[in-house]
Specification:
The complex is a heterodimer of chains A (191) and B (200). Chain A is built from five helices and ten strands; from the N terminus they run ααββαββαββαββββ. With 191 residues, chain A is an alpha+beta fold. In chain A, the strands form two sheets. In chain A, strands 2-1-10-5-6 form a five-stranded mixed beta sheet. In chain A, strands 3, 4, 7, 8 and 9 form a five-stranded antiparallel beta sheet that branches. Chain A is elongated and about 70 Å long. Chain B has 200 residues and is an all-alpha fold. Helices cover 68% and strands 0% of the residues of chain B. In chain B, helix 2 packs antiparallel against helix 4 and helix 4 runs antiparallel to helix 5. The chains are: A alpha+beta (191), B mainly alpha (200). At the A-B interface, helix 1 and helix 2 of A face helix 9 of B.
Chain lengths: 191, 200
């Protein structure tokens, strides 16, 4: 009985240590900023959204959520988004947010022609949208690719303060909009 | 005399019902607990308990055992593996009716979770650990392994970092051990001590 309990203890220790070091590795590898993750919840309007990549002037720009909500950018109100997941289940979400294209355009951030650039979303929790999409989508369908801060007229709290939202109608064939609607948006890479 | 003492130690109530014979009370237990689980799984955002402090995607697996604990409780009360499947079927139906984004697939997911738990119990019983914390923990771990990581596979989230995959599976297994196995066993024992009739 004693040796049985000892083996259980050893197994628990091995699992515990593995999880600890895997977490350390994941935090470093995915550049998780724990403090920013916490501040995102306590002061959502001050949360910085980073726009970075070789397609951006200076390689990096930062806008806060309160700036994104301002009338400096094109706001999209209570728009119905048709979302589809990989099992072809479709559902409607109503989002309010700011047009991604209007942010890039108004701040004059792009250094190369839009045809040559792509965008990809990254979240605070290590998630990233599956692949970069052509920035032409964001330009041509400026109200269908947004950085949402409200769902059903209410602020997005646990999944926010910003989440990306893309209508299935503008997503390339073979892609699923649910995977591009990234919760807890941290950064947008333009390249 | 020895047998009487043993029964007293186990603190089970004699019901006269057979372990093999299937009864109406089995069905009642399964549907009631399944419906309870379906309502709670659909409507209560337990994941918030994790999201507020743990930043990596997949971390909510730490609490995912609450989806399967109902099946381990019913098994403890009835000792019939088929009841696990009935409970998970009623739970899946409830989640479907509550408008789960996965549609009918959620019923299949629940049945698979039940099947994994059933297999876990089958294995640990063969190893002589059917009524120990270790046995229930391992069975619960198996049962819960078919959780959201399975959704990641369905979603083909291969683009996520490998460490997130590994952590997610480990969390699902640990949640299974702690919530489905150990907590499920404790709840079952409390229910029996409180006077809930077993059917075995």
């Amino acid at each position: 009985m004693k040796s049985r309990n000892f083996y259980i203890l050893v197994a628990a220790l091995v699992v515990g240590l593995s999880i600890f070091w895997l977490n350390v590795y994941a935090f470093i590898e995915l550049e998780v900023d724990y403090q920013a993750y916490q501040e995102r919840q306590t002061s959502p309007d001050l949360t910085p959204i980073v726009i970075e990549g070789i397609g951006i002037k200076g390689g990096r720009a930062v806008v806060t959520v309160s700036q994104l909500k301002s009338f400096a950018f094109k706001q999209v109100y209570l728009k119905k988004f048709n979302i589809m997941n990989r099992y072809y289940n479709q559902y409607i979400k109503i989002y309010t947010g700011v047009s991604l294209w209007s942010v890039l355009d108004s701040l004059n951030l792009l250094v190369r022609p839009v045809e040559e650039l792509t965008f990809r979303f990254y979240a605070y929790d290590g998630y990233a949208s599956p692949k970069p999409l052509s920035l032409i989508i964001a330009k041509n369908f400026s109200t269908s690719v947004i950085l949402a801060y409200e769902e059903n007229g209410q602020p997005i709290i646990t999944d926010g303060p910003i989440r990306s939202a893309i209508d299935q109608a503008v997503v390339p064939e073979g892609e699923f909009s649910s995977q591009y609607c990234v919760k807890m948006l941290k950064s947008i890479v333009i390249q | 005399m020895e047998e009487t003492v043993k029964k007293f130690d186990e603190e089970f109530i004699e019901t006269g019902l057979s372990k093999k014979k299937y009864t109406s009370i089995d069905l009642l237990y399964s549907t009631i607990i399944g419906i309870l689980g379906g309502i709670i799984s659909s409507l209560i955002p337990f994941s918030l308990l994790i999201k507020v402090w743990y930043p990596l995607t997949g971390g909510t697996q730490l609490i995912s055992g609450h989806h399967v604990i109902w099946a381990s409780i019913i098994y403890g009360l009835t000792r019939k593996k088929a009841n696990i499947m009935i409970t998970m079927l009623s739970k899946g139906l409830l989640e479907f009716l509550f408008g789960d984004p996965w549609g009918l697939l959620i019923i299949f997911v629940n049945l698979m979770e039940g099947f994994c738990l059933l297999s876990g119990f089958f294995i640990v019983e063969k190893l002589g650990e059917g009524e120990t914390n270790l046995g229930w923990g391992i069975a619960g771990g198996f049962g819960n392994l078919f959780q959201a990581p399975f959704f990641w596979v369905l979603n083909q989230r291969w683009y996520l970092h490998w460490s997130l995959w590994v952590l997610s599976f480990m969390y699902a297994f640990i949640s299974g051990i702690l919530i489905v196995g150990l907590l499920g066993r404790a709840v079952k024992n409390v229910l029996i001590k409180a006077g809930v009739h077993t059917t075995f």
